[in-house]
Specification:
The protein has 235 residues and is α+β, with helices and mostly antiparallel strands. The chain folds into two domains: 180 residues, no CATH class; 41 residues, no CATH class. The protein has six helices and six strands. The strands form two sheets. It has a four-stranded antiparallel β-sheet, with helices on one face. A two-stranded parallel sheet has the order 5-6. Helix 1 packs antiparallel against helix 5 and helix 2 packs across helix 5.
Protein backbone atom coordinates (compact mmCIF):
# COMPACT_ATOMS: atom_id res chain seq x y z
CA UNK A 1 0.00 0.00 0.00
CA UNK A 2 2.92 2.32 0.65
CA UNK A 3 4.05 1.82 -2.95
CA UNK A 4 0.53 2.68 -4.19
CA UNK A 5 0.67 5.96 -2.27
CA UNK A 6 4.08 6.78 -3.75
CA UNK A 7 2.82 6.05 -7.25
CA UNK A 8 -0.18 8.35 -6.73
CA UNK A 9 1.99 11.22 -5.55
CA UNK A 10 4.59 10.53 -8.25
CA UNK A 11 1.95 10.76 -10.96
CA UNK A 12 0.63 13.98 -9.44
CA UNK A 13 4.16 15.42 -9.45
CA UNK A 14 4.61 14.53 -13.12
CA UNK A 15 1.28 16.14 -14.02
CA UNK A 16 2.22 19.29 -12.09
CA UNK A 17 5.59 19.38 -13.86
CA UNK A 18 3.82 19.07 -17.22
CA UNK A 19 1.48 21.95 -16.36
CA UNK A 20 4.45 24.17 -15.55
CA UNK A 21 6.27 23.18 -18.73
CA UNK A 22 3.17 24.27 -20.62
CA UNK A 23 2.82 27.62 -18.87
CA UNK A 24 6.38 28.89 -18.42
CA UNK A 25 7.54 31.30 -21.17
CA UNK A 26 10.96 29.66 -21.39
CA UNK A 27 12.74 27.28 -23.71
CA UNK A 28 15.41 24.62 -23.52
CA UNK A 29 17.32 23.66 -20.39
CA UNK A 30 16.14 26.71 -18.43
CA UNK A 31 12.53 25.62 -19.00
CA UNK A 32 13.00 22.29 -17.21
CA UNK A 33 15.13 23.78 -14.42
CA UNK A 34 12.56 26.50 -13.68
CA UNK A 35 9.72 23.96 -13.59
CA UNK A 36 11.71 21.72 -11.22
CA UNK A 37 12.51 24.61 -8.88
CA UNK A 38 8.87 25.71 -8.75
CA UNK A 39 7.75 22.14 -7.98
CA UNK A 40 10.38 21.98 -5.22
CA UNK A 41 8.93 25.18 -3.72
CA UNK A 42 5.28 24.07 -4.03
CA UNK A 43 5.70 20.72 -2.28
CA UNK A 44 6.51 22.32 1.13
CA UNK A 45 3.45 24.53 0.68
CA UNK A 46 1.23 21.47 0.23
CA UNK A 47 2.90 19.78 3.23
CA UNK A 48 2.39 22.88 5.39
CA UNK A 49 -1.31 23.02 4.50
CA UNK A 50 -1.63 19.31 5.32
CA UNK A 51 -0.06 19.71 8.75
CA UNK A 52 -2.01 22.89 9.44
CA UNK A 53 -5.15 20.83 8.86
CA UNK A 54 -4.06 18.42 11.60
CA UNK A 55 -3.12 21.26 13.95
CA UNK A 56 -6.44 23.03 13.37
CA UNK A 57 -8.37 19.85 14.19
CA UNK A 58 -6.35 19.31 17.37
CA UNK A 59 -7.04 22.85 18.57
CA UNK A 60 -10.68 22.64 17.52
CA UNK A 61 -11.17 19.49 19.61
CA UNK A 62 -9.51 20.99 22.68
CA UNK A 63 -6.07 19.43 22.39
CA UNK A 64 -2.67 21.09 22.54
CA UNK A 65 -0.14 21.16 19.71
CA UNK A 66 3.34 20.55 21.14
CA UNK A 67 5.33 20.31 17.90
CA UNK A 68 4.94 21.25 14.23
CA UNK A 69 7.55 19.89 11.82
CA UNK A 70 7.93 20.28 8.05
CA UNK A 71 10.71 18.53 6.12
CA UNK A 72 12.70 18.03 9.29
CA UNK A 73 12.41 21.67 10.40
CA UNK A 74 10.62 22.00 13.74
CA UNK A 75 8.66 25.24 13.52
CA UNK A 76 6.86 24.83 16.85
CA UNK A 77 8.41 23.12 19.85
CA UNK A 78 7.24 23.16 23.44
CA UNK A 79 8.07 20.99 26.42
CA UNK A 80 6.46 17.68 25.39
CA UNK A 81 4.55 15.43 27.77
CA UNK A 82 5.89 11.92 28.39
CA UNK A 83 3.98 10.37 25.47
CA UNK A 84 2.67 12.82 22.85
CA UNK A 85 0.77 11.54 19.84
CA UNK A 86 1.73 12.40 16.27
CA UNK A 87 -0.10 12.82 13.03
CA UNK A 88 1.11 10.68 10.10
CA UNK A 89 4.81 11.10 9.36
CA UNK A 90 4.91 9.84 5.78
CA UNK A 91 4.66 13.10 3.83
CA UNK A 92 7.61 15.00 5.22
CA UNK A 93 6.00 16.57 8.28
CA UNK A 94 4.06 15.81 11.43
CA UNK A 95 2.20 17.44 14.29
CA UNK A 96 2.72 16.36 17.90
CA UNK A 97 -0.25 16.86 20.22
CA UNK A 98 -1.80 15.87 23.54
CA UNK A 99 -5.27 15.69 25.06
CA UNK A 100 -5.87 15.91 28.79
CA UNK A 101 -7.33 12.56 29.73
CA UNK A 102 -6.55 11.09 26.30
CA UNK A 103 -8.38 11.29 22.99
CA UNK A 104 -11.33 9.23 21.83
CA UNK A 105 -11.30 7.19 18.64
CA UNK A 106 -13.77 9.65 17.17
CA UNK A 107 -11.41 12.54 17.86
CA UNK A 108 -8.47 10.58 16.42
CA UNK A 109 -10.46 9.98 13.23
CA UNK A 110 -11.25 13.66 12.82
CA UNK A 111 -7.62 14.65 13.36
CA UNK A 112 -6.40 12.04 10.87
CA UNK A 113 -8.92 13.16 8.23
CA UNK A 114 -8.16 16.86 8.67
CA UNK A 115 -4.74 16.70 6.97
CA UNK A 116 -5.87 15.09 3.69
CA UNK A 117 -9.04 17.18 3.89
CA UNK A 118 -7.00 20.39 3.97
CA UNK A 119 -5.09 19.19 0.90
CA UNK A 120 -8.31 18.50 -0.99
CA UNK A 121 -9.70 21.95 -0.12
CA UNK A 122 -6.47 23.59 -1.29
CA UNK A 123 -6.59 21.57 -4.52
CA UNK A 124 -10.15 22.74 -5.18
CA UNK A 125 -9.44 26.40 -4.45
CA UNK A 126 -6.18 26.47 -6.43
CA UNK A 127 -7.82 24.73 -9.37
CA UNK A 128 -10.79 27.09 -9.46
CA UNK A 129 -8.54 30.14 -9.22
CA UNK A 130 -6.32 28.80 -12.00
CA UNK A 131 -9.36 28.32 -14.25
CA UNK A 132 -10.65 31.82 -13.50
CA UNK A 133 -7.28 33.42 -14.27
CA UNK A 134 -6.71 31.40 -17.44
CA UNK A 135 -10.22 32.01 -18.78
CA UNK A 136 -10.53 35.70 -17.92
CA UNK A 137 -11.02 37.71 -21.14
CA UNK A 138 -7.97 39.76 -22.17
CA UNK A 139 -10.13 42.70 -23.20
CA UNK A 140 -11.24 44.14 -26.50
CA UNK A 141 -8.79 43.56 -29.31
CA UNK A 142 -7.17 46.59 -30.89
CA UNK A 143 -4.63 47.22 -33.56
CA UNK A 144 -1.31 45.60 -32.59
CA UNK A 145 0.89 47.84 -30.48
CA UNK A 146 3.81 47.07 -32.77
CA UNK A 147 2.11 48.99 -35.59
CA UNK A 148 1.15 51.95 -33.44
CA UNK A 149 3.50 54.78 -32.66
CA UNK A 150 2.92 56.41 -29.28
CA UNK A 151 3.59 60.12 -29.69
CA UNK A 152 2.25 61.62 -26.50
CA UNK A 153 4.52 64.46 -25.41
CA UNK A 154 6.02 67.53 -27.01
CA UNK A 155 5.50 68.05 -30.76
CA UNK A 156 9.26 68.06 -31.30
CA UNK A 157 9.39 64.47 -30.10
CA UNK A 158 6.94 63.18 -32.71
CA UNK A 159 8.33 61.44 -35.79
CA UNK A 160 7.73 62.81 -39.27
CA UNK A 161 6.07 59.61 -40.46
CA UNK A 162 4.26 56.78 -38.72
CA UNK A 163 2.67 53.52 -39.89
CA UNK A 164 -0.32 53.46 -37.55
CA UNK A 165 -2.78 55.64 -35.66
CA UNK A 166 -1.16 58.45 -33.70
CA UNK A 167 -1.83 58.62 -29.96
CA UNK A 168 -1.52 62.25 -28.93
CA UNK A 169 -2.26 62.13 -25.20
CA UNK A 170 -1.31 60.07 -22.20
CA UNK A 171 -4.96 59.09 -21.78
CA UNK A 172 -5.01 57.63 -25.28
CA UNK A 173 -1.82 55.68 -24.50
CA UNK A 174 -3.34 54.20 -21.33
CA UNK A 175 -6.55 53.29 -23.15
CA UNK A 176 -4.67 51.53 -25.95
CA UNK A 177 -2.57 49.52 -23.52
CA UNK A 178 -5.71 48.59 -21.60
CA UNK A 179 -7.44 47.35 -24.75
CA UNK A 180 -4.41 45.50 -26.07
CA UNK A 181 -2.17 44.35 -23.19
CA UNK A 182 1.50 43.81 -23.80
CA UNK A 183 2.54 40.17 -24.37
CA UNK A 184 4.31 40.04 -21.02
CA UNK A 185 1.03 40.51 -19.14
CA UNK A 186 -0.48 37.49 -20.90
CA UNK A 187 2.58 35.40 -20.12
CA UNK A 188 2.42 36.44 -16.49
CA UNK A 189 -1.25 35.54 -16.24
CA UNK A 190 -0.76 32.16 -17.90
CA UNK A 191 2.26 31.40 -15.72
CA UNK A 192 0.33 32.27 -12.54
CA UNK A 193 -2.54 30.02 -13.66
CA UNK A 194 -0.16 27.12 -14.32
CA UNK A 195 1.57 27.56 -10.94
CA UNK A 196 -1.80 27.45 -9.20
CA UNK A 197 -2.79 24.42 -11.27
CA UNK A 198 0.46 22.68 -10.31
CA UNK A 199 -0.13 23.46 -6.63
CA UNK A 200 -3.65 22.07 -6.88
CA UNK A 201 -2.45 18.87 -8.56
CA UNK A 202 0.31 18.34 -5.98
CA UNK A 203 -2.08 18.97 -3.10
CA UNK A 204 -4.66 16.59 -4.56
CA UNK A 205 -2.04 13.87 -5.02
CA UNK A 206 -0.74 14.39 -1.48
CA UNK A 207 -4.20 14.19 0.04
CA UNK A 208 -5.19 11.05 -1.88
CA UNK A 209 -1.85 9.32 -1.28
CA UNK A 210 -2.06 9.92 2.46
CA UNK A 211 -5.53 8.39 2.60
CA UNK A 212 -4.08 5.05 1.49
CA UNK A 213 -3.96 2.86 4.63
CA UNK A 214 -0.36 1.87 5.36
CA UNK A 215 1.71 2.07 8.51
CA UNK A 216 2.21 5.70 9.55
CA UNK A 217 -0.35 7.20 7.16
CA UNK A 218 -3.47 9.17 8.01
CA UNK A 219 -5.47 6.57 6.12
CA UNK A 220 -4.31 3.85 8.51
CA UNK A 221 -5.10 6.01 11.54
CA UNK A 222 -8.52 6.85 10.13
CA UNK A 223 -9.32 3.21 9.37
CA UNK A 224 -8.19 2.12 12.84
CA UNK A 225 -10.35 4.76 14.48
CA UNK A 226 -13.42 3.94 12.40
CA UNK A 227 -13.21 0.26 13.32
CA UNK A 228 -13.48 1.10 17.01
CA UNK A 229 -16.32 2.57 19.10
CA UNK A 230 -16.39 6.35 18.76
CA UNK A 231 -16.27 7.03 22.48
CA UNK A 232 -13.47 4.60 23.32
CA UNK A 233 -10.22 6.08 24.53
CA UNK A 234 -7.01 5.33 22.66
CA UNK A 235 -4.57 3.19 24.64
Amino acid sequence: MRMTARIIFGLASLMAFGALMEGLPLRGYAHSVAAFLIISALIPVAIAVHELGHAWAVRRLGGKVVSFTILGVELIKSAPPPDPRFSGREIGGHVGYVFEGGETRHEAARIAAAGPGANLVLALLAGLLAILIASSPPGQKAAPISTTTIVAGEPAQRPAAIDGPRLRSDEEVRQRLKENPLPGSRWGRNMLAMILAALGILSLGMGLANLIPFRGSDGAALLHALRSPGGAKLP
